[in-house]
Amino acid sequence: MKNRYKISELAKIADISKQTLIFYHKKGILIPEYIDENNGYRFYSNSQIWDLFFIITLKEAGFSLEEIKEYTKVKTPLKSLEFLEEKVDDIDKKIEELKKSRDTIQEKILCIKEMSSNLEEKVQLVELKAMKVYFIKIKDPVDEKEIAETYDKLQRLGNKNGIKEILYITKVKQKDIYENSEIPISEIGLLVPEEYSILGEEFIENKYCVMLRHKTTFDMIKLTYENLHRFIKENNFEVVGDSIEIGNEVVVPLENGFGGIIDIYIPVKKLKNFKN
């Protein structure tokens, strides 16, 4: 094995450019072991080959040049160990963040696919299972700012409590539904999974409902309610409570605005002669 390597030779071994090695030299990250005073040629030692490979590894792991430079200055095994263990923890955190980002993107992909499908949604009579919900009351049912801030509060609350899948539960008073141009939201809640508990959570009992999936722009949701109420009237059902909307945090840009998938449930009295 050679004792020294020219800059061109080291660049070829590591499959990088000579300019990168010159840059590392200027930044004090990898200083050649020997520089010829007569011609300025840079020469690197055998051990510096492995130093360079590790520098490349750190760079590929997302370390900044300043962090890499900091590591090259470490002189003791203990300090080196502390530095590397800290950086492994940083990488683990980045991996978790990337996993969350991937899950969010995957959810949006699934949402877009479903919203793009041409399958017609049909009204169904279903049993809405009992659930735990943490609700926040809305002072102004049509105040977009207050509603957006409430969703943000609930999302942060869910993240704080380690809830992985954030589902929002929205209450809409049926008696007020046609008094405004927009759907008047009375309460917005966070679904609390069985294995979790949040102080102030409420328990919603199971109930029979007519249900329809809304999967277009949010400003068209009133039409979905009209379809539900038409179905209720045609089948001689009686509304026995406020509607409940269940949706996730995925919002999709569409041609006519923004939308998402929301399952709308309106509690009704069950008729014996109804056939699903």
Q: What tags apply to this protein structure?
A:
alpha+beta, 2 domains, 13 strands, Multidrug-efflux Transporter Regulator, Chain: A, Domain 2, three-stranded antiparallel beta sheet, Multidrug-efflux Transporter 1 Regulator Bmrr, Chain A
Question: Would you write up a description of this structure?
Answer:
The chain is elongated, with a radius of gyration of 30 Å. The strands form three sheets. Strands 4-9-13-10-6-7-5-8 form an eight-stranded antiparallel β-sheet, with helices on one face. The protein has a three-stranded antiparallel β-sheet with strand order 1-3-2. Helix 1 (7-14) crosses helix 2 (18-27). With 276 residues, the chain is an alpha+beta fold. It has helices at 7-14, 18-27, 46-60, 65-72, 77-116, 144-160, 221-234; strands at residues 4-6, 34-35, 42-45, 124-128, 131-137, 167-172, 185-192, 202-204, 207-214, 243-248, 252-254, 257-259, 262-267. Strand 2 and strand 3 (42-45) form a beta hairpin. It has two domains: 4-73, Multidrug-efflux Transporter Regulator, Chain: A, Domain 2 (Orthogonal Bundle), CATH 1.10.1660; 124-267, Multidrug-efflux Transporter 1 Regulator Bmrr, Chain A (Alpha-Beta Barrel).
Task: List the topology elements.
Elements: E1 4-6, H1 7-14, H2 18-27, E2 34-35, E3 42-45, H3 46-60, H4 65-72, H5 77-116, E4 124-128, E5 131-137, H6 144-160, E6 167-172, E7 185-192, E8 202-204, E9 207-214, H7 221-234, E10 243-248, E11 252-254, E12 257-259, E13 262-267
